[in-house]
Structure formats: structure tokens, C-alpha cells
């Protein structure tokens, strides 16, 4: 007669030390393979968030120009401490001014602290004349054409374009862009 603890039902049987070590090793290998992919996805989402914000804010600036029957000026500043801001009227604002006063972007102001680990490349990141553009209140056309390029910490880029008739678009620069997310520039 068999002892009750030695039945084939598996009751009372656990994992061996070798089985636990193998399971932990496989789990560790899977984690090591998943971390770079996860980091790339986080980097991509950060870049998409700031590009979508700029796109939406440009749409907002255009609608505010028409609604208020005044020009809306958008000013950009590049580099790691980048910013952009908007103001109603004919004169541009300075997006580096943090509090209300002379040059403050009263309509809206956004900077690198809102979207960390994303930057505007210091050279050729902004193609607008004098780093500013805006919208005419009569037809919502652009005051100047150009683009702003945003770059992620891993070197991926996306470009927000403004055409003369006020059309705003996003594209991926060749070689470094978010291919598959935005059309090629």
C-alpha cells in the first residue's frame, strides 16, 4: 500500500531549485530584451506629445486670430531650453519671459519643462524668419512660412510645417524621423 503523500495527484510536490533557477533566468532574459524596446516607445511617445501640442497650439493661434480680428504672433526659441509662445497683436513676444510684463507671451507659453527629454535642435531647428510666425485675422493665412523641428533624447525627429495659406502639417525628416508615424518630409 502507498503512502497518501506519495500519490500521483501532485499534492505536496513543489518546484525543485533547478526549475526555479531556469524560470528566473528565462524571465531575466525576457526583461533584458524588453527594456530597449520599452525605452524606444517612451521616447517616441514623448516626441509625439510635443509635436501634437505644437500642431494643436498653431491651430488654436489661427482660430484666435480670426476670432479676435487681430494678428496672433508665435515666437520660438531653440536649444535644450526651448520654448514657444503666442500673443495677440502686431508685435512678437519673448517666450523666455516667465512672468507677465514686457514681452510676455500672454496668449500661451510652453517650454522644455512641459516636455522633458525633447528639444529643438539649436542649428536649423527653426526655419521661420526671426524665429517667429503668426496668423492674419482676415483669412487665417500665415504671416511667414517655415517649420520647427523637435528632437527626442534618442535622436528621432518630427517637423511641424506652416504653409502660406495657413495649413499646418507634420512630417518625419529622412533618416531620423518617426517613420510609420508621420509621412516623410
Automatic annotation (TrEMBL):
Keyword Transport: no
Top-level taxon of the source organism: Bacteria
Keywords assigned by UniProt, alphabetized: Cell inner membrane, Cell membrane, Membrane, Methylation, Transmembrane, Transmembrane helix
TM spans (from-to): 20-38
UniProt entry tagged with the keyword Lipid biosynthesis: no
Signal peptide region: none
Subcellular location: Cell inner membrane
Pfam families: GspH (PF12019), N_methyl (PF07963)
Membrane topology: Single-pass membrane protein
Residue ranges occupied by any General secretion pathway GspH domain in the UniProt entry: 52-163
Family designation: Belongs to the GSP H family.
Record's protein name: Type II secretion system protein H
Species: Vogesella margarita
